Automatic annotation (TrEMBL):
This is cytochrome-c oxidase. Its EC number is 7.1.1.9. GO terms for cellular component: plasma membrane. The gene is ccoN. InterPro entries: Cyt_c_oxase-like_su1_dom, Cyt_c_oxase-like_su1_sf, Cyt_C_Oxase_1, Cyt_c_Oxase_su1_BS, Cyt_c_oxidase_cbb3_su1.
Length: 473
């Protein structure tokens, strides 16, 4: 049983969560601006700082490193304390991690629109910022594992296994992918070249998805889904199988991004095979989370936080089904470099990661601030349906645009001449790009409702002492 004199540190957790909420709105709003620029190119305003190529890495960095990493850092430090019945390893260190990470994000906001970039997907920041990222990440690792070492129970809860994997794997692949030779301040060249550079980049690029947007979020959900459903994890054994399956196979799947490239065929095949194998642990974990929620069917019918979690699981199933399919050669031949890939990424990013984060915000923030309930149950319902409309329209629009685009690029006359010009393919997908913009507006509108609802909740005078936030220091 939890010791009543345990001193927990929640203030830094609050800061991480608030930063995550802010970056979810900032990062996704930039995404909506980019969607508008694709349909209305004049919105680039002939500005070198506001054009698509400069804003796009700011969008991805804002969502991945701002929204996701902040919530994962905050919840991991909270969960490590609660499940270990101990306080943080070092409070001063926790503030160094928080402010260090916000400094990194600020430098990204300043440097990326100015054109300082390595041009590597999800790794665009230049070498001085990379060094700062490594420093802060090491401090975070010391803080997290130090807190686990302080635990007063022998058992390590499964969520912490996923957090540990996300910390270790991201550190390893980030350092290797960003090995570079500085030419001068804010300019460097990778130590890898050609096919080797591509292999290393997509070892990082795919596993940034696998261990930030997947393993870390799974760890977060394995704690909060049982909490919100008021039931234990459906199968603890299955959660361990889920963990080892993910760790064992995900890191090998990155080369499915390099099919039909100059990378050796056997390396491409490893990515294809591992992608197909990943179906098993991914859907096993999704089944485990879904069954945890379904153990309390009565609450699931009316609790929109549970419904957000359940929706996230459905989109996780969709993304982890579609990903291996897209790795198969004949699928890849149609889909590669088309809007279909963008739709696939966002069905996972908005549907799985976005809805998981939203559910955690709605459940966690009121309890973290000691509030009895959300300020408005009506607003969370509106948010739920706006979010669903946004994700579905986004995915469907880009599925149609991508399939049509891929077909038009491949279509040939009997003499081998291309039937459709590039401009004709662009004309075909234009209305679907408009629909993608509308879908983004719907999703961000829901986020704004969430921010207002959570703000009113936190400012509400109604306070009660919850078990979740007892013994705060």
């Amino acid at each position: 049983m939890e010791e009543t004199n345990t001193q927990y540190s929640y203030t830094v957790v609050k800061y991480f969560v608030v930063a995550s909420v802010a970056w979810s709105v900032i990062g996704m709003t930039i995404g909506v601006i980019l969607a508008a620029q694709l349909y209305w190119p004049a919105l680039n305003f002939d500005s070198e700082y506001f054009q698509f190529g400069r804003l796009r890495p700011l969008h991805t960095s804002g969502v991945i490193y701002g929204f996701v990493v902040n919530v994962l850092m905050g919840t991991s430090l909270y969960i490590a304390q609660k499940t270990g019945h101990c306080g943080l390893y070092n409070r001063s260190l926790s503030w160094m991690v928080f402010w260090g990470w916000q400094l990194i994000l600020l430098l990204a906001v300043l440097s990326l629109p100015m054109g300082y970039t390595t041009s590597k997907e999800y790794a665009e920041l230049e070498w001085p910022i990379d060094l700062l990222i490594v420093l802060v990440w090491v401090l975070y690792a010391v803080l997290f594992f130090g807190t686990l070492a302080k635990r007063k129970v022998s058992h390590i809860f499964v969520a912490n296994w996923f957090f540990a994997a996300f910390i270790i794997v991201i550190a390893m692949i980030f350092v290797v992918n960003n090995l570079e030779l500085p030419a001068y301040f804010m300019k460097s060249y990778s130590v890898f070249a050609g096919a080797q550079d591509a292999i290393v980049q997509w070892w990082w690029g795919h596993n940034a998805v696998g261990f930030l947007l997947t393993a870390g979020v799974i760890g977060m959900n394995y704690y909060f889904i049982p909490k919100v459903s008021e039931r234990p994890i459906y199968s603890y054994r299955l959660s361990i199988i889920h963990f080892w399956g993910l760790v064992g196979f995900y890191t090998w799947a990155g080369t499915h991004h390099l099919i039909y490239s100059s990378v050796p065929v056997w390396v491409q095949n490893i990515g294809i095979v591992m992608s197909l194998i990943l179906w098993l642990p991914s859907w096993g974990g999704a089944f485990n989370s879904a069954m945890t929620l379904l153990q309390n069917k009565q609450k699931l019918k009316s609790d929109y936080i549970m419904l957000f979690f359940f929706s996230a699981i459905i989109y996780y199933c969709l993304a982890t089904f579609e990903g291996p399919l897209l790795a198969i050669r004949w699928f890849n031949m149609i889909a590669h470099n088309t809007e279909w890939i963008i739709g696939h990424v966002h069905s996972g990013a908005l549907g799985w990661v976005g809805m998981s984060g939203i559910a955690v915000f709605y459940y966690f923030i009121p309890r973290l601030w000691g509030k009895e309930q959300l300020w408005s149950s009506r607003l969370i319902k509106w948010h739920f349906w706006l979010a669903h409309a946004g994700v579905l329209l986004y995915a469907i629009a880009l599925w149609v645009a991508g399939i049509g685009e891929g077909y038009m690029w491949l279509a040939q006359n009997d003499n081998g001449e291309l039937i459709y010009s590039f401009v004709e393919a662009m004309d075909f997908k234009a209305p679907w790009l408009l629909l993608r913009f509308i879908a983004g507006v719907l999703f961000v509108s829901g986020l704004l409702l969430m921010v207002y609802n959570l703000y009113k909740t936190v400012r509400s005078p109604a306070v009660f002492a919850t078990k979740e936030v007892s013994h705060e220091s």
